[in-house]
């Protein structure tokens, strides 16, 4: 079995981007890796279940705050 190591620059590789906008890298354990253009902020690593859970929780909170008004 080949040991696949994560490199900090892997997020720049196109093979980890679905349709160019969704980052999916099972070897990257960061919850919010940087976007391809670092000045644009961070994105969600959809291969990390914690990252997806944080995204869903955030969207749920925003929904309830907005709908309560």
Please outline the helices and strands.
Elements: E1 17-18, E2 22-23, H1 49-67
Antiparallel strand pairs: 1-2
Provide an overview of this structure.
The protein is elongated. The chain has a domain of 43 residues. The mean pLDDT is 84. It has one helix and two strands; from the N terminus they run E-E-H. By secondary structure, it is mainly α. Helices cover 28% and strands 6% of the residues.
Low-pLDDT stretches = none
Count up the helices: 1
Helix content: 25-40%
Instruction: Briefly note the structural class of the backbone.
Output: mainly alpha
Q: State the end-to-end CA separation.
A: 55 Å
pLDDT averaged over residues: 84
Compressed to H and E, one letter per element, the order equals EEH
User: Strand fraction band?
Assistant: 5-15%
Please report the total strand number as a whole number.
2
Largest sheet: 2 strands, antiparallel
Rg from C-alpha positions? 14 Å
Give the overall shape: elongated
* Strand order across the largest sheet: 1-2
Short account of what is shown:
This protein is mainly α and 69 residues long. It is built from one helix and two strands; from the N terminus they run E-E-H. The chain has one helix at 49-67; strands at 17-18, 22-23.
Jot down its keywords.
two-stranded antiparallel ribbon; mainly alpha; 69 residues
């Amino acid at each position: 079995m080949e040991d696949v190591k994560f490199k900090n620059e892997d997020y720049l590789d196109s093979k980890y981007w679905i349709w160019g906008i969704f980052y999916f890298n099972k070897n990257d354990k960061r919850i919010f890796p940087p976007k391809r253009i670092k000045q644009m902020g961070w994105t969600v690593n959809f291969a990390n279940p914690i990252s997806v859970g944080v995204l869903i929780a955030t969207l749920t909170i925003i929904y309830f705050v907005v709908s309560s008004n």
